[in-house]
Structures are given as structure tokens and as C-alpha cells.
Design goal:
alpha/beta, 5-stranded parallel β-sheet, 403 residues, Rossmann fold, 3 domains, 5-stranded antiparallel β-sheet, single chain
Length: 403
């Protein structure tokens, strides 16, 4: 039997979720269990634990999920070369299903009857969290304070925190310059100074990448090894998924790779402007496509490109646990059976450029494509191929001429 009084809160220790914690205790009379996930955001998480303890929380979960995040969420998504609206590598989107999954698991372990999150009623994250909750436990109660309370501004949150003696980080007092979300795949910034899509992002928005103009004047050359579509090594050194992505972040970030400024269409209907840094992910995306270019059949490659926008949209909109995403994933994973080998790249002043690729499963045939003499291809065969493909065009032209 679940305890309807217990609620598992996705907790960061920041202003919003700290206020939500107290609001759940006071306004909703709930016993709060906090869950803080380490997804590689680059912050010390023990302060979140201490803050929860100071606010009277008895059950506190702080968990390192970096390997699971990259292995079971980021890598499957990258096998699809997923880009939302042609540009966004889905850094925030892909983190939400894992957080939701672990919340539901904790709720089951301790018998909690409810889960809660700190996403606002204007954004995508409320949808992503809650679709995950409902897919994994249809009977769970979901509490979304931003859709209930009257604390509709940052100033009201600060006033509430001060009234209830909730510690507030100094940079959260007053008007924060922008809102930041970070994990091992990316850092995003939005809001405030960035809300005007014409305003140039100030330099301090970027925290994970060097300004390309200030990046080293000599390119950094690396080799990424792949096994069945997943990156497994850098320069011959095998690494775990999280360690590999972290290393690519260092290499890409130092060379100014992975900055993106875009206006995207939120699932709820409005447009928003986001500034993203995805250095390791950008390098990985470029390298994976290069690996596929010699190991993947043309029909399979083109089919993947056709379904990719749909797959990316499913993740962006929060449907990671939907049957259609799982169906597409099975197709994508099947396509990766021969995507193994090595890709060489140069990282230089904001660019990741492929300079070589090789694979034991390559479909590239030098004997067929050479401009020199060969004994495997009869060029006369092309005449019939061209004439058959031109037949419908010739018939249409003759019709139009009235013949």
C-alpha cells in the first residue's frame, strides 16, 4: 500500500525546488523525500543533501547516474543522429526520462503515493516529467506546484524563501541573468537577457566552451573508435560511456566546438530562444555520421534520415517511454550492427572536421570508385540504367509536346 502523504521531489537544492520543498510541507502537509540526480552537471551535490536535512527531510536520495545516463539514454539517441529542428542535440530533453524513472522507482521502494517536480507551466519539462511518470506508474499522483501556487515570479519566490528562512544562493537574489540547465551532455541558458532573440548572448553565458576566436591556433587531432554505433575509445584508449563523453567535452570545449543559439518551438506552442553548449555531443554527432557513411547501406542510411526528425520530436516532446519511440529505437539499433571502426577528426576554432574514417565492415570499394583502370565495373552497364530511369521523364515530355 502506498503512503498518500509521502511525495518524492526531484530536488536540485536551488531556489525553485527549495521553495517547493517547504511549500509541500506547509501548504500540502506532505512528508517530502528528496531525490537529487548527478547527471554530470558539474556541481557538488552534497550541499543539496545538507540543505534538505536542514529543512527537516528524513529520507534523502543523492545518486550518481552518469554512466546510466550516457549508456542507456544519450548513446541510443546518438545512434539515430537525432537533431530537433535540424540543430538541437536534445541535451535537456534526454535527461528528463531518467530522472522520472528513478523518481518512480524510489516511490515504489519507499511506498510513496506521489511525485513532484519544479518545472513551470510554460515549458516542455512539465510534459517530459509527467509523461514519464504516467508511463511508468499510471496510478501515481503528480504534484506540479507551478501550476497551483500564486508564487508566479522570481521576486515572490525570493520573498517566500526569506519569510521561511530558506537559504538563497547569492546569484539567485533579485533578477537572475538567465536560467541554466546542465548535465554531462550539455549546458543550456535561456530567459532574461536572452529573451530578446536579437540580443547577442553575453560572453559569461558560456561556461563549457572557449570562445572560438580565443581557441588554440593549432588543431587538435583525435580518433574515436566505434562498436555497433556507440563510441568506445578515444585515441585507442577504451573508456566507459560517461568518461568518454566527459573527455570529448574537454577536447571540444577547449577548441570552442558545440555552441548553438537557436529559437525553437516548444511543445506547449510558444517559441523560445536557447543558447546551448554541447561540445562532446557535437564531436560525437559528426564522428558517428562519418562512421555510418562507409559502414551503412544507402537505403538504410536514407531511411534513418527520414525517420530522424520524428524520433527527435518524440524525445523533445517527452515520449521516451512511448511504444512508437521504442519501435523506432529497434529499427535504429538494427541499423548499427556494422557501424564499427575509427573516425579521425580535427577540432579547430569551433569546428569538428572529419579527416578520415576506416571500418572492418566498410562498404566503400576503392576498386569500384577509382578513376584509374579497374576490372570490376563495366561502364557500359550504366547506359541501360540511365535510359530506364529516364523513361518516365521522356514519356512525360512527349505527352506535353502533344506527341
Amino acid at each position: 500500500m502506498s503512503d498518500v502523504n509521502k511525495v518524492v521531489l526531484a530536488y536540485s537544492g536551488g531556489l525553485d525546488t527549495s521553495v517547493i520543498l517547504r511549500w509541500l510541507q506547509d501548504a500540502r502537509r506532505r512528508e517530502v523525500v528528496t531525490f537529487t540526480a548527478d547527471l554530470g552537471q558539474g556541481e557538488e551535490l552534497e550541499p543539496a543533501r545538507r540543505k534538505a536535512e536542514a529543512m527537516g527531510v528524513k529520507e534523502i536520495y543523492v545518486e550518481d547516474l552518469r554512466e546510466e545516463f550516457v549508456r542507456d539514454y544519450v548513446f541510443p539517441m546518438f545512434r539515430a543522429n537525432a537533431l530537433y529542428e535540424g540543430a538541437y542535440l536534445l541535451g535537456t530533453s534526454i535527461a528528463r526520462p531518467l530522472i522520472a524513472k528513478r523518481q518512480i522507482e524510489i516511490a515504489a521502494e519507499i511506498g510513496a503515493g506521489a511525485v513532484a517536480h519544479g518545472a513551470t507551466g510554460k515549458g516542455n519539462d512539465q510534459v517530459r516529467f509527467e509523461l514519464g511518470y504516467h508511463a511508468l506508474n499510471p496510478d501515481i499522483e503528480v504534484i506540479a506546484p507551478w501550476r497551483e501556487w500564486d508564487l508566479g515570479s522570481r521576486a515572490r519566490l525570493v520573498a517566500y524563501a526569506e519569510k521561511h528562512q530558506i537559504p538563497i544562493p547569492r546569484d539567485k537574489r533579485g533578477e537572475a541573468p538567465f536560467s541554466v540547465d546542465a548535465n554531462l551532455l550539455h549546458v543550456s541558458a535561456e530567459g532574461k537577457v536572452l529573451e530578446d532573440p536579437w540580443e547577442r548572448p553575453p560572453g559569461h553565458v558560456y561556461s563549457r566552451t572557449t570562445d572560438p576566436r580565443a581557441a588554440p591556433d593549432r588543431p587538435t587531432e583525435i580518433e574515436i573508435g566505434f562498436e555497433k554505433g556507440d563510441a568506445v575509445s578515444i585515441d585507442g584508449e577504451e573508456m566507459s560511456p560517461a568518461a568518454l563523453l566527459a573527455r570529448l567535452n574537454e577536447l571540444g570545449g577547449a577548441n570552442g566546438v558545440g555552441r548553438l543559439d537557436m529559437v525553437e518551438n516548444r511543445f506547449v506552442g510558444m517559441k523560445s530562444r536557447g543558447v546551448y553548449e554541447t561540445p562532446g555531443g557535437t564531436v560525437l554527432h559528426v564522428a558517428h555520421r562519418a562512421m555510418e557513411s562507409i559502414a551503412l547501406d544507402r537505403g538504410a542510411a536514407h531511411l534513418k534520415d527520414e525517420i530522424m526528425p520524428r524520433y527527435a520530436e518524440l524525445i523533445y516532446n517527452g515520449f521516451w517511454f512511448s511504444p512508437e519511440r521504442e519501435m523506432l529505437q529497434a529499427l535504429i539499433d538494427k541499423s548499427q550492427e556494422h557501424v564499427s571502426g575509427t573516425v579521425r577528426l580535427e577540432l579547430y576554432k569551433g569546428n569538428a572536421t572529419v579527416t578520415g574514417r576506416r571500418s572492418p565492415r566498410s562498404l566503400y570499394s576503392l576498386a569500384h570508385v577509382t578513376f584509374e583502370d579497374d576490372e570490376v565495373y563495366d561502364q557500359r552497364d550504366a547506359e541501360g540504367f540511365v535510359r530506364l530511369n529516364a523513361l518516365r521523364l521522356r514519356l512525360a515530355r512527349r505527352r506535353d509536346r502533344g506527341r
